[in-house]
C-alpha cells in the first residue's frame, strides 16, 4: 500500500524541548548512518501531497536534511506541546487547500508505509495510530477544518492531544509489531537501530 494521498499534508512534529534526550533536535540525530528525519521523510513522502516540519527556533538547521521543506513555528508561545504543531499543520494545510494533516513525531522514524491510507480509511473525523493495544496520539490524521476549534481549546489551556482528539471522535487504528517505536532518551536509540537492522 502507499501511493500519494491527495489532500494530505504530512507534518513532522519536532517542536519539543527533548529534555529526556538532553536537549537539541532529536530528529537530526543519526540512525543507521543518516539523520532520523531522513529515515522518516523517506517513509512519509509517498504518503502525502505535501510535507512540513513543525519546529521552533532557527529553521535553517533543517535545510541540509530537508531542503525546501517549510518549517512551521508554533502559533502559541512557551512550548505548549504537540497540539501546537497539529494546529500549525492545520493552518498550513488550509493555506495550501489541503483537507487533512498527518502528524508524526520526529523521534518516531519507522512508521508503516500504509500509515496515511489506513488512517484515512478510518478517520471519524480523527484517526490515531495504535499498536499492542496502546494509542500513540501524536501519530494521527486530523481534518484541517477543526483548526478553529483547536485554536479556541488551546487558548483556554488545552494541552493534551488525546483529550482534545477524544472530544471530537478519534478512531484507533491498530498495527502489528511496534512500528511506532520512538526515541525519548539516549538509551532508546539502540532499540531503534536494532529495529532498523531487522528491517523494520
Ligand atoms: N510543535 C511542537 N511540538 C512539540 C512540542 N512539545 C513536544 N512536541 C513534539 O511532540 C512529540 C512528543 O513530544 P514529547 O516526547 O512529549 O516531548 P519532547 O520534547 O520530544 O521530549 P521531552 O522534553 O523529553 O518530553 C515530539 O515529536 C515533540 O517534538 C511543542 O511545544 N510544540
UniProtKB/TrEMBL annotation:
<protein>
    <recommendedName>
        <fullName>Molybdenum cofactor guanylyltransferase</fullName>
        <ecNumber>2.7.7.77</ecNumber>
    </recommendedName>
</protein>
<keyword id="KW-0963">Cytoplasm</keyword>
<dbReference type="InterPro" id="IPR013482">
    <property type="entry name" value="Molybde_CF_guanTrfase"/>
</dbReference>
<comment type="subunit">
    <text>Monomer.</text>
</comment>
<comment type="function">
    <text>Transfers a GMP moiety from GTP to Mo-molybdopterin (Mo-MPT) cofactor (Moco or molybdenum cofactor) to form Mo-molybdopterin guanine dinucleotide (Mo-MGD) cofactor.</text>
</comment>
<dbReference type="Pfam" id="PF12804">
    <property type="entry name" value="NTP_transf_3"/>
</dbReference>
<feature type="binding site">
    <location>
        <position position="26"/>
    </location>
    <ligand>
        <name>GTP</name>
    </ligand>
</feature>
<keyword id="KW-0808">Transferase</keyword>
<keyword id="KW-0342">GTP-binding</keyword>
<dbReference type="GO" id="GO:0061603">
    <property type="term" value="F:molybdenum cofactor guanylyltransferase activity"/>
</dbReference>
<dbReference type="InterPro" id="IPR025877">
    <property type="entry name" value="MobA-like_NTP_Trfase"/>
</dbReference>
<comment type="similarity">
    <text>Belongs to the MobA family.</text>
</comment>
<feature type="domain" description="MobA-like NTP transferase">
    <location>
        <begin position="10"/>
        <end position="168"/>
    </location>
</feature>
<feature type="binding site">
    <location>
        <position position="74"/>
    </location>
    <ligand>
        <name>GTP</name>
    </ligand>
</feature>
<keyword id="KW-0479">Metal-binding</keyword>
<dbReference type="InterPro" id="IPR029044">
    <property type="entry name" value="Nucleotide-diphossugar_trans"/>
</dbReference>
<keyword id="KW-0460">Magnesium</keyword>
<keyword id="KW-0548">Nucleotidyltransferase</keyword>
<keyword id="KW-0547">Nucleotide-binding</keyword>
<feature type="binding site">
    <location>
        <position position="107"/>
    </location>
    <ligand>
        <name>GTP</name>
    </ligand>
</feature>
<feature type="binding site">
    <location>
        <position position="107"/>
    </location>
    <ligand>
        <name>Mg(2+)</name>
    </ligand>
</feature>
<keyword id="KW-0501">Molybdenum cofactor biosynthesis</keyword>
<feature type="binding site">
    <location>
        <begin position="13"/>
        <end position="15"/>
    </location>
    <ligand>
        <name>GTP</name>
    </ligand>
</feature>
Amino acid at each position: 500500500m502507499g501511493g500519494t494521498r491527495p489532500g494530505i499534508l504530512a507534518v513532522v512534529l519536532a517542536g519539543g524541548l527533548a529534555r529526556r534526550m538532553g536537549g537539541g533536535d532529536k530528529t537530526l540525530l543519526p540512525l543507521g548512518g543518516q539523520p532520523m528525519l531522513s529515515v522518516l521523510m523517506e517513509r512519509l513522502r509517498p504518503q502525502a501531497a505535501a510535507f512540513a516540519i513543525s519546529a521552533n527556533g532557527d529553521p535553517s538547521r533543517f535545510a541540509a536534511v530537508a531542503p525546501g521543506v517549510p518549517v512551521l513555528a508554533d502559533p502559541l508561545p512557551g512550548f505548549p506541546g504537540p497540539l501546537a504543531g497539529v494546529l500549525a499543520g492545520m493552518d498550513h494545510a488550509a493555506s495550501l487547500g489541503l483537507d487533512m494533516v498527518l502528524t508524526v513525531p520526529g523521534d518516531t522514524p519507522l512508521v508503516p508505509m500504509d500509515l496515511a491510507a489506513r488512517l484515512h480509511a478510518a478517520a471519524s473525523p480523527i484517526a490515531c495510530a495504535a499498536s499492542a493495544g496502546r494509542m500513540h496520539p501524536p501519530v494521527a490524521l486530523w481534518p484541517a477544518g477543526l483548526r478553529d476549534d483547536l485554536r479556541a481549546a488551546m487558548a483556554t489551556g488545552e494541552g493534551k492531544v488525546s483529550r482534545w482528539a477524544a472530544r471530537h471522535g478519534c478512531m484507533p487504528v491498530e498495527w502489528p509489531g511496534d512500528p511506532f517505536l520512538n526515541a525519548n532518551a539516549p538509551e532508546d536509540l539502540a532499540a531503534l537501530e536494532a529495529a532498523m537492522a531487522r528491517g523494520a
